[in-house]
Amino acid sequence: QLDQEQIKAVSVAALLHDIGKLAIPEYILNKRGVLTPEEARKMRMHPQFGADIISNIKFPYPVAESILSHHERFDGQGYPRGLYGKYIPLGARVVAVADTFDAYLADRIESKETLEGAMRLLWDGSGTAFDPDVVRVWEKIYSEVVVWPSNPESDQHTGIQRAKSELKMLESLTHSIAGLTSVQDIFFT
């Protein structure tokens, strides 16, 4: 069962999940195109670096495990440990969905179509990359939180509107899981 501290842990992990990239050379982080095998190996170390950094901070709740596992895949093909399904910490499964959604939007002009494309990407990875229950909850919250401007000629969000929407989605998701024992419980509430 998730309590308030665990909900806070998910929120903190979402904010700090890529802190391990501080240990990755800048030329790798900024490289355009495909990484070499050695560059990819170094990049794949950022979850471990992040967990190591965070484990030295005395949070009143566990954060490091979600940071370590945010690149695990629901089908077990992720890294760094090859965890699968419910063996991946719930916080990491939530962060994976939020991170992918955000990454899809990062270099695009935000519009209703772009947001729908981000949701399609999550559904395409549902059951393989992502926990299908977390994707369902994300979509439910996304459809309740994202509000488009009333002016139909301007269906684009500003950066501030987008940040507010993403924060509301993450807050709604973490509050939705309070007191529930599984993602399945969340979906059916």
Reconstruct the topology from this structure.
Layout: H1 4-16, H2 26-29, H3 37-43, H4 46-55, H5 64-68, H6 90-106, H7 112-124, H8 132-145, H9 159-176, H10 183-187
State the main characteristics.
globular, about 55% helix, about 190 residues, mainly alpha, 10 helices
Describe the structure.
The protein contains ten helices and no strands. The two termini are 15 Å apart. The mean pLDDT is 82. α6 packs across α7 (112-124) and α8 crosses α9. With 189 residues, it is mainly α.
The biggest beta sheet reads: none
Low-confidence stretches: none
SS summary, helix count: 10
Average of pLDDT: 82
Give the overall silhouette. globular
Would you kindly provide a brief summary of this structure?
By secondary structure, the chain is an all-alpha fold. It contains 10 helices and no strands.
